[in-house]
Structure formats: structure tokens, C-alpha cells
Specification:
Blueprint lengths: L29 H4 L19 H10 L5 H22 L8 H11 L5 H4 L23 H20 L28 H12 L6 H20 L3 H5 L6 E5 L5 E8 L5 E6 L1 H13 L27 H20 L6 H9 L2 H14 L4 H8 L12 H14 L7
Antiparallel strand pairs: 1-2, 2-3
Helix pairs in contact: 3-6, 7-11, 8-10, 8-13, 11-12
Length: 406
């Protein structure tokens, strides 16, 4: 039996030719605002003051104000759904049914008409630009699954808050994910060497070139040796490095970062990482060791005042490095084209996966990798487990190295 979903539902007449607008600029007519949504719960049981869908969305998103990356991801998904529901389906969010959400899931794999939904070209536009669109193209199956997970959490919260009568996604078929899916977005040891070679070959004739090369080297170093996320680098200061002695009196350096969900963790700052930190600071005329509580950002701008680079800016620096390394590979001959393509498609987060993969290759205990990366929450009593921390530091120090050649 064939089962097809028809996503070509007419929108409300007034919006049939309208273009999508970002959530903060969206103005909905009364019939699409959700004040009379068919899935609205009785007002007497509501635990939030929202009278329409946009107000309810604002209340939900406000819970993530202290986590910019999460806020951005959640806003993107609920924004896309609201725009599709009102412009393409002709319904307010609070009237969507289970069947509507099935159609939306299908829509994500090919947002049509593309002129309305998909950004033209590869350049990302500001949210206030008239050519802004909510999609860069069709979503991959994994991105669709993630979008529906986020929306399910949104609808569940609306229901719990007494804004909606029920969660239309609660009826969705639960798909069992792949068991122990292997990470594929990482660099082999050979490709990682190509990246390091490209950085070491960067020009340093002018002060700007010298500082830019130093920044590329330091950023790649801290992402790889620390296994950090770009957002963690952007939100960490140099004062987060500190030194303490172990039971044998050996001084060990650590870096304290705040990860997802505002969870702090300690990352071993190996001798290599501390040496690279000193090298980077000297390039800027700074003392090799940061002061306790120093507010200077972990990655410095090449020019201008010492303001932390955003997560997006850090991504652009890494993309430039990968593009440069890919170009050097292509110059070797056509047999390197496939590997150059891998590098050209890589992003900053690949370095975190690369670090984890390389640590595992070198037989670093997976428990240490887990704690270095913050994959499990740190129990309250872990602050007393200095012996285990020191063993993790020693294992990381001995087996996880970057190996700059000069």
C-alpha cells in the first residue's frame, strides 16, 4: 500500500503570497495568532500568561536565555514550524494536528516552493535582510530527526504549562536510533598532519600575518588538545587556566570550561598546551602565564580591543585553515582531490571529533576521554577525586599530543 503526504495545502488568503519573516519581526492576523487555536487548553489551567502562540513561544525560549547555542537551535526550529503552519498550512501553531506534523516532517526534506523558503546562494544573510529565508536547503534525515525532537519538547512543555490541550507529536512512532553509531566527521591522522603543515606554512611577513598565523595555530591547538567546542572556546577566558599540585607534589595545569547545560568541567592542560599558550601570549607581547582570574579572552582578535570572538567568527577561522590545507592538497595532484574535498567540508566541531578519535586510537582510557569531553555529568563528589583526576591528566599528557614540528 502506498502512503503519500500532500504538503500543498493553501494558506490563508491574506498570506498566500507572503514571504517568511524572522520570529521577532512576525506579525500574525488574529485568525492565525492562536488565540482561538483548536488545541488550546482551558485558560483556567494555564501556568503561563501567554494569550497567543508567539507569546507562548517567547515564554518557552526564555528558559534558554543563558545558553545561546541552545536558544539559537530551538528558535530556528520553532520559527520554521510557525512560518510553515501559517504561510503554507493556513493554521496557527495551536491548531496543528498529528497529521499536520507528519506533513511538516515531509516538508523538511524538500522545502517547496524554494523561492519562498530557501536562501538563494551560499552567503548567510542577516535576519533583517529582505532576502532572508529560514532554510539553506533540504534537511538531512538526522537534521529532520533533531528538529522533530526539539519540537516534541516544545509541544510537551506547552501541554505541561496548560497552554495546549495535548501534544500532537506524542503520537509519533518512536524510531530506534542506530546502536553505537560511529563518528564519521573527523580527520585521519594524515589529514590532521596536512592541516598542521598548512598552518606552519602561513606567511608571517607583516604583524597582521604573524598574529593571524599565531591565532590559527593556537585555536587549532586548544580545540584539539582540549577537545573543546567552539562555543566553549568563545566563552572561556585565559584566567580559566590554573595550576595545582598532585599528591606527589607535581604541578599540573588545568582549564576550567563551562559546557552544555552550564555544566563546568576540568580539562587537562598538558605541557604542550601550556607551552602553546605561552607561545601565543608572547606573540601578543603578554607574559607567558595568565594571571588568576584574567578576563582576557582565550582567543584574541588580530586587531582592535581584546574582545572575545564569537562562535561564528571562530568557525570562520577554522574554515579558512581547512580551505587553505585543502588547496595545498589539490596542488599535489588529482589523486588528492577526494581528501581535499573532505577537508574543505570540515568544520570546527570536526576537531573535537578528531581529538576524541585520536585519543581512542592511542589507547587513552575511554573514561578519561568521557570526562575530558564532558559527555557525562560530573557528580558532586568528583571534586574530591583528585587521584583519579591526576591519573587522567597523566594519561592525557603522555598519549595525546599535537607535535608541532617547529
Amino acid at each position: 500500500m502506498n502512503f503519500a503526504l500532500d504538503t500543498r495545502y493553501p494558506a490563508a488568503p491574506a498570506l498566500s503570497a507572503a514571504l517568511p519573516a524572522p520570529l521577532e519581526r512576525l506579525r500574525l492576523p488574529a485568525e492565525l495568532s492562536g488565540t482561538q487555536g483548536t488545541n488550546r487548553a482551558p485558560a483556567r489551567g494555564a501556568q503561563i500568561a501567554a494569550s497567543d502562540d508567539l507569546a507562548a513561544i517567547a515564554a518557552w525560549l526564555a528558559r534558554y536565555a543563558d545558553s545561546p547555542a541552545t536558544l539559537q537551535a530551538y528558535r530556528r526550529e520553532v520559527e520554521r514550524l510557525v512560518l510553515w503552519a501559517t504561510l503554507q498550512r493556513g493554521k496557527p501553531l495551536s491548531s496543528l494536528t498529528h497529521e499536520d506534523l507528519l506533513a511538516y516532517e515531509h516538508f523538511l526534506s524538500d522545502p517547496q516552493p524554494a523561492a519562498r523558503w530557501v536562501l538563494a546562494g551560499n552567503k548567510k544573510l542577516a535576519r533583517g535582510h529582505p532576502d532572508w529565508r529560514p532554510f539553506a536547503g533540504p534537511l538531512s534525515p538526522s537534521s529532520i530527526r533533531q528538529a522533530m525532537v526539539i519540537l516534541n519538547a516544545c509541544f510537551a512543555w506547552f501541554t505541561e504549562a496548560g497552554y495546549l490541550g495535548g501534544n500532537p507529536l506524542s503520537l509519533a512512532r518512536r524510531r530506534r536510533g542506530p546502536t553505537q553509531a560511529r563518528i564519521t566527521r573527523y580527520l585521519s591522522h594524515a589529514l590532521w598532519d596536512a592541516v598542521k603543515d598548512a598552518i606552519e606554512a602561513m606567511p608571517t611577513d607583516t604583524d597582521r600575518e604573524r598574529l593571524h598565523a599565531a591565532r590559527c595555530r593556537w585555536l587549532c591547538t586548544v580545540l584539539y588538545l582540549g577537545g573543546l567546542r567552539a562555543a566553549e572556546v568563545a566563552g572561556t577566558t585565559m584566567g580559566a587556566f590554573f595550576c595545582r599540585r598532585d599528591a606527589q607534589g607535581v604541578e599540573r595545569w588545568w582549564l576550567e570550561v563551562t559546557g552544555k547545560g552550564n555544566k563546568p568541567r576540568l580539562v587537562p592542560a598538558t605541557d604542550e598546551l601550556i607551552a602553546e599558550l605561552a607561545r601565543y601570549r608572547r606573540a601578543h607581547g603578554l607574559p607567558p602565564t595568565p594571571l588568576t582570574g584574567e578576563e582576557r579572552p582565550l582567543v584574541l582578535p588580530v586587531i582592535g580591543r581584546e574582545k572575545a570572538l564569537s562562535r561564528g567568527a571562530l568557525h570562520l577561522v577554522i574554515k579558512e585553515v581547512f580551505g587553505m590545507a585543502a588547496g595545498r592538497l589539490r596542488a599535489r595532484g588529482p589523486e588528492w582531490e577526494a581528501q581535499a574535498d573532505v577537508l574543505a567540508s570540515a568544520s570546527a566541531h570536526w576537531l573535537r571529533h578528531t581529538a576524541g578519535s585520536h585519543m581512542s586510537d592511542r589507547q587513552v582510557d575511554l573514561r578519561h576521554v568521557r570526562d575530558n569531553f564532558g559527555h557525562a555529568s560530573i557528580a558532586t563528589t568528583s571534586i574530591y577525586l583528585h587521584t583519579e583526576d591526576d591519573a587522567r591528566h597523566q594519561a592525557t599528557q603522555e598519549r595525546h599530543r599535537i607535535g608541532w614540528t617547529k
